[in-house]
């Protein structure tokens, strides 16, 4: 994601939602250079938002959605690919584009993305 795309999303999509919430808000981001943007940080200050940057190379441990959602999705994706490859009798690390949506849907449908799981991700990361 480039800086302009992030800024557009942050200012035009996230800020309007956060403005409706009372009190201090926290946004957690990785150290991607496009997230470090003076205009975004000024808007955070203006709207009582703390933007917390996770340390580099720690996202897989410290980012709640990585822990609670994306890590399980990656594991499930590997299982789906193994099953798909075994049915076809081959070993492709990347499925053809026409197969990708169906296989991804299989992986996504198997996840139990509940509120409790997401909250547990924050607890597990200590946030």
Describe the fold and architecture.
With 127 residues, this protein is mostly helical. It contains 6 helices and 2 strands, in the order αβαβαααα. A two-stranded parallel ribbon has the order 1-2. α2 links the parallel β1 and β2. The longest helix has 25 residues, at 64-88. It comes from Parnassius apollo.
Element order, helices and strands? HEHEHHHH
Measure the end-to-end span.
25 Å
**Strand fraction:** 5-15%
Counting DSSP E segments of at least 2 residues, the number of strands comes to 2
Overall 3D shape = elongated
Please identify the structural class as seen in this structure.
mainly alpha
Mean pLDDT: 88
The radius of gyration over CA amounts to 18 Å
**Major beta sheet summary:** 2 strands, parallel
Give helix % range. Answer: 55-70%
Enumerate the spans where pLDDT stays under 50 for 5 or more consecutive residues: none
Summed up, the helix count is 6
Strand order of the largest sheet: 1-2
* Tally of separate domains: 2
Pfam families: DDE_1 (PF03184)
InterPro entries: CenT-Element_Derived, DDE_SF_endonuclease_dom
GO molecular function: DNA binding
Protein name: (apollo) hypothetical protein
């Amino acid at each position: 994601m480039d800086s302009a795309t992030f800024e557009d999303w942050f200012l035009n999509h996230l800020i309007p939602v956060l403005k409706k919430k009372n009190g201090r808000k926290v946004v957690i981001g990785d150290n991607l250079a496009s997230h470090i943007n003076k205009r975004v940080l000024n808007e955070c200050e203006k709207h009582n938002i703390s933007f917390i940057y996770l340390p580099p190379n720690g996202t897989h441990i410290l980012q709640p959605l990585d822990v609670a959602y994306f890590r399980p999705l990656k594991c499930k994706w590997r299982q789906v690919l193994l099953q798909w490859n075994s049915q076809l009798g081959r070993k492709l690390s990347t499925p053809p584009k026409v197969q990708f949506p169906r296989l991804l849907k299989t992986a996504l449908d198997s996840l139990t993305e509940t509120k409790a799981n997401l909250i547990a991700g924050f607890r597990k990361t200590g946030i």
